[in-house]
Specification:
alpha/beta; globular; binds iron/sulfur cluster; four-stranded parallel sheet; binds ligand MGD; 754 residues; binds molybdenum atom; Dimethylsulfoxide Reductase, domain 2; 31 strands; N-terminal domain of TfIIb; Barwin-like endoglucanases
């Protein structure tokens, strides 16, 4: 075949950033496999990456804009779609004020450097305070905790998985998720290697996950109590004289405050609440301290709880107390190739991060956190009438499906229906975008280049990897980045090209003005001219690489299709710090102020609680339309322990109704020892009964976020509580389950019944 081509392409689907080999014939993808020559992923790929061809050719992907006419979404041209937006959005803002429009950025934005670089431009152009994103149903607590401790929100300590002797994992299932805030492609291989060299893997999770099964020890914890467990471990370290700061000692402040906070939580005090014997907690702490090197790592299960920031903070407190922060085999700071907040500016000191932003939500009066409002407040900001600032009347979503991914989805879907105007940039007509007035179609990721700005900052080695597009954009369709710029240009009365020039000029000026930048003192105009013919996000990336610490250009990366390995993580303290004190602030005031809330957990009552789970063949809410992702047994099932099943009167394979304060769903039951008694589990991202996705519709499942409660948040970070939801479980069809109802929602339909 003469038109057969081989392309090397970073997988854009999850944080592992695997290198793929994509074979194409003409316009068809004929095969996708892991790239054995990739510097970082060494041939690893998961079923999702392998399905990229299926995703590219999915006939249900949107190919043209849609505009609502007489209540129906109908195909339209780009010019018609932009004209509709230009006619309606500026007018709406003029009439109701800039805060009448909100923006929600979804998870795939983080996987597209163009979308990521231009979204701030759109937000600025809209001028709204109502900025929402998937971050507040995910990792906001971690950003906040590390921002306060180390000075920038991206300074997340990353487990040195390839060298560590001991890895303690809480609330994460990297053998299924492939890692998050922890980019390490081929997690199965890396964890196997850890154990093979005599290292120890300990997993704390209420479920016996794939990772827990592969571990040396599995600790089954009661959901929502990790902060207590970690506090008791810290208590043990102090009580037994095991605190060893090592070379960090001169760089740490606040040690006494931490000692004081955890003094109230000896293992015996927390054991019952955590459901973990005191002797085990003490041993976990001793083993952590005794290991030649160790890393503590927490993810979704630690973040998406009412004490998410405290737990995220304590994870790194333990890394510091055991001397494992910033040392090989411990948890270290990546030094990414593209200029970033912890490589720019004065090394070792900075402005730090402030909490309690000046803006407050209208209804609950919650502060913005790191510039965002909690996604859990989006519905009420739309559906609550009355004074106190502007009600949200228009919404712009970019690559987000908040109808399925944020708490109390039924309320949000109802609220979306009340908007005066809604614009979505998305690949599919789904549970969220079906409410839009204008949908702009996102092209296949294979038609754009790839560089993972955030994940290059969270990776377990220093790597730089860029891939060009596999296919040219079909019919000249605009990319996500171009669509975002175009929207911003409409609001500002300018062109996308002019905005693109503006961003790059500003970045060049900032780099030239920064004494620590290799471009310091250069003429910004000259710097921009040196970037040559490239335009858009790749030109910006080129500039950020030149302004970064490795003397790289985008041409260097283009010449290295398997990536550039920049070596293992190196100690960066104190240079990496950007706190006002120039120290690791181990006890930041906002966290100290929040710490008394830990005591609430001691008295938290028993009863069934719901946790989530991920599946190897899922990607949040949006890949269920690919046959390869939904084949086989139903995966949207309720996992329940044998004893709880008996108590509830339900059987394996039977149907159950799960009820929470906000809603109820009916679902098939799987009775299994893999959840601890008192805990049931349902995956999120399902509930596709009403979408334009034909395969997903046939495998609808139920939306677990019809059960999560939008009123429950982590107060410091505003993050939603998505795990440890109080529920009751009854046989389906049984009359009146005991429930504190607001509205009962039929399985998957998204329509309130009462
Ligand atoms: N109960 C519960 N809820 C959760 C979680 C949980 O564990 N439990 N996890 C949370 C987490 S960690 C996250 S990150 C959020 C995710 O929350 P969201 O980001 O709101 O949801 P996704 O399911 O990732 O939806 C992504 C959207 O982007 C679209 N899309 C896909 N590719 C592209 C593209 O290239 N361009 C554009 N423009 N659109 C694209 C998809 O069609 C889909 O509509 O969900 C959260 N919700
Ligand atoms: N296959 C697949 N991979 C994915 C995704 C996907 O949807 N599918 N989503 C991607 C995204 S957006 C993200 S953010 C990452 C998430 O990456 P991870 O955090 O590794 O993913 P989860 O599988 O949600 O793991 C969370 C674990 O926390 C446990 N848990 C629940 N509550 C608690 C608790 O209170 N305490 C403790 N200790 N554990 C608890 C759950 O049982 C679950 O096993 O995954 C990414 N990768
Ligand atoms: S692990 Fe993540 S990055 Fe790697 S192939 Fe799978 S989805 Fe893609
Ligand atoms: Mo996420």
């Amino acid at each position: 075949m003469t038109d057969e081509r081989t392309s090397y392409r970073i997988c854009p689907l999850c944080e592992a950033t695997c290198g793929l080999v994509i074979t194409t014939r003409g316009e068809r993808v004929v095969s996708v496999r892991g790239d054995t020559e990739d510097e970082f992923s060494r041939g690893f790929a998961c079923p999702k990456g392998i399905a990229l061809g299926e995703l590219h050719h999915d006939p249900d992907r949107l190919t043209t804009p849609l505009i609502r006419r007489n209540g129906e979404l109908v195909p339209a041209t780009f010019e018609e779609a932009f004209a509709e937006i230009a006619a309606r959005l500026p007018k709406l803002i003029e009439e109701h004020g800039r805060n009448a429009v909100a923006v929600y950025l979804g998870n795939p934005v983080a996987h597209d450097h163009a979308a990521l670089l231009y979204a701030p431009m759109l937000i600025k152009a809209l001028g709204t305070d109502h900025r929402y994103s998937a971050s507040t149903v995910d990792q906001m607590p971690k950003h906040l905790a590390v921002g306060l401790m180390f000075g920038t929100v991206m300074s997340v300590p990353i487990p040195d998985v390839d060298r560590t002797d001991h890895l303690l994992v809480l609330g994460a299932n990297p053998l299924v998720s492939n890692g998050s805030l922890f980019t390490a492609p081929d997690m199965p291989g890396r964890l196997r290697a850890l154990r093979k060299r005599g290292g120890r893997l300990v997993v704390v999770d209420p479920r016996r996950t794939r990772t827990a099964k592969a571990a040396d020890e599995h600790v089954t914890i009661r959901p929502g109590t990790d902060a207590l467990l970690l506090a008791a471990m810290a208590h043990t370290l102090f009580a037994e004289g095991l605190v060893t700061l090592g070379r960090l000692a001169p760089h740490v402040s606040g040690l006494d405050d931490v000692r004081e906070i955890v003094a109230a939580y000896p293992p015996e005090t927390v054991a019952q609440a955590c459901g973990v014997p005191a002797a085990d907690i003490r041993r976990l702490a001793r083993e952590l301290a005794a290991a030649p090197s160790a890393a503590v790592y927490g993810r979704i299960g630690t973040c998406t709880t009412a004490h998410g920031t405290l737990a995220s903070w304590l994870v790194d407190v333990l890394n510091v107390l055991t001397g494992n922060l910033d040392r090989p085999g411990g948890a270290l700071f990546t030094k990414p190739a593209a200029r970033t907040d912890n490589t720019a500016g004065e090394p070792g000191r900075g402005r730090g991060v402030r909490v309690g932003g000046p803006r407050r939500t209208r209804v609950r009066g919650l502060p913005s956190v790191l510039g965002e409002f909690p996604a859990a407040t989006l519905a009420e900001e739309i559906d609550t009438p009355g004074p106190g600032g502007e009600r949200i009347r228009a919404l712009v979503t970019v690559a987000g499906n908040p109808a399925l991914s944020t708490p109390n989805g039924a309320r949000l879907e109802a609220a979306l229906g009340q908007l005066d105007f809604m614009v979505c940039i998305d690949a599919y007509l789904n549970e969220t975008t079906r409410h839009a007035d204008v949908v702009l179609p996102a092209p296949s990721p294979l038609t754009r280049s790839q560089y993972d700005l955030p994940f290059a900052q969270f990776s377990t080695r220093n790597v730089a990897h860029w891939s060009p597009p596999v296919f040219p954009p079909s019919d000249g369709r605009p990319s996500d980045g171009e669509l975002i710029l175009r929207l911003a240009a409409i609001m500002l009365g300018t062109t996308a090209e002019a905005l693109d020039d503006l961003v790059v000029q500003r970045t060049a000026a900032a780099a030239a003005a920064d004494p620590s930048s290799p471009l310091h003192g250069r003429d910004p105009a000259e710097l921009v001219a040196e970037l040559g013919e490239r335009r858009g996000a790749d030109r910006m990336l080129d500039l950020m690489l030149r302004a970064g610490p490795y003397d790289l250009t985008l041409d260097d990366l283009a010449a290295a299709p398997h990536g550039v390995d920049l070596g293992p993580l190196q100690p960066r303290i104190p240079e990496v710090l950007r706190t006002p004190s120039g120290t690791i602030e181990l006890a930041p005031q906002p966290i100290v102020d929040d710490a008394p809330r830990l005591a609430d957990l001691l008295t938290s009552t028993a009863g069934l609680t719901l946790v989530g789970r991920r599946d190897l063949r899922s990607n949040n809410s949006w890949m269920h339309n690919l046959p390869a992702m939904v084949k086989g047994a139903d995966r949207c099932t309720l996992h329940i322990s044998p004893s709880d099943a008996v108590a509830a009167g339900i059987v394996d394979g039977g149907r159950a109704t799960v009820t929470s304060r906000v809603g109820a769903v009916e679902v098939t039951v799987l009775v299994t020892d893999d959840v601890r008694p008192g805990v049931v589990s349902l995956p999120h991202g399902w509930g596709h009964a009403e979408t334009g996705m034909s395969v997903a519709r046939a495998h609808a499942g139920v939306n677990s976020n019809l059960l999560t409660d939008e009123l429950e948040i982590d107060p410091l970070s505003g993050n939603a509580v998505l795990n440890g939801i109080p529920v009751t479980v009854t046989p389906a069809g049984a009359t009146e389950p005991t429930r504190p109802t607001r509205s009962v929602v039929a399985a998957g339909s998204g329509k309130p019944l009462s």
